[in-house]
Amino acid sequence: MKILMVSEDVPGVQLGGLARHVVTLANALLETGHEVDLMGRSDRAHAGSAAEIGFDGRFIPGFELRRIGWKEAQLGFFNPAKRPWFAARIARALARRAQHYDVVHYHGHLPMIGHYVDPALNFIQTRHDQGSECMTHLRFKDGAVCTDTSNRACAGCAHPAPGLLRTMLSGQAVARYRGEAASAFARHKTIFVSDFLRRQFLRTLPGADLSRARVIHNFIDVRKLAAAAHPSGTGGAEVRSARQGQVLVAGRIDTGKGFAEFLAAARGCLPPETRVLVVGDGPLRARLEARHASEQVRFLGWQPNSAVAALTAASHVCVVPSLWEEPCGTTILEALALGRPCLALARGGTPELTAYASVPGQLILADSMQGLVRLLAGALARPAPAPAEPGAASAAMDVFQVLPTIVDFYAH
Hints:
By secondary structure, the protein is an alpha/beta fold. It contains 14 helices and 15 strands.
């Protein structure tokens, strides 16, 4: 099968979860005999783009998105034309090449792209976040999960005091955005990475037609993850046991990810021998490092995937403290695949991931940040468990196990 992958998140030096998902899927398809090209942004492209992102096939510079501001922040409202304009631009770029492929698979942040794609084209998109109905893609506002489904209520995310005119304009933008997303889902096939995401969209647009949609959880390349976590033959010692008291917190250090709240709640509440490693970068890193860096809390900055895998395997416990509703956390899947206990809040799609635990209780869910810290203290008081042998649960999250389901979806 000839497949064109499309994403505005590639190329780039530091790949987020969505981009890593695309590359993992594309490489697995290549390895199993399919022909795969990956189209991304031309304004970031260079001769080494494929190698930079770890893609084993051909990278195609497809569209330019440099002018992405449209002064929404300065004007204080969501522009009704902005996102449809970019969606149509990407749709035109993929349409120019679509006749050379059996399927076009889009992964990105513009759910209405299918609204601008010919209904006769075998087009499929994967929805990775709550951007199907939320302009910020997070449904997180004023430090809490947003549950308001009104179009006009979204004006508060564009301006702290929007007033009548800004509220009207933002409301029009959100109504168009959601309407075109629903149109795209009705016209073309869609994958939601958790049932939580599917239900969230129907909660916002109860009449939406999702009959062509499927739920397929995120996946990882278990073989590559294990090789990165336990390197051998390179002169380095293999990591086969966890370090007592080491806690790993990895991800983008940003609003909604819970780093600030976790570090504040954990201060003075963990055993003295605990070492918390904070891996990642983001807008809140400098402030949190200035406030919390100590002998017990170390900020390691951004690390390559191989280093994060090794740190995960070597940690007593992994913590994913997200306050926003994670759709399907790849960080959680990686911890489970490497046999490490993982603590997270029981929000979003996270409870669905208990199905991938290697042993009962490996994924520990808390109802609050204070509860999470109490559970963490309890886990650290016990000896670090030995890594569990990969079993059926780990196999179920492996990309090569999921691949036949995706290819079947491509074909029907």
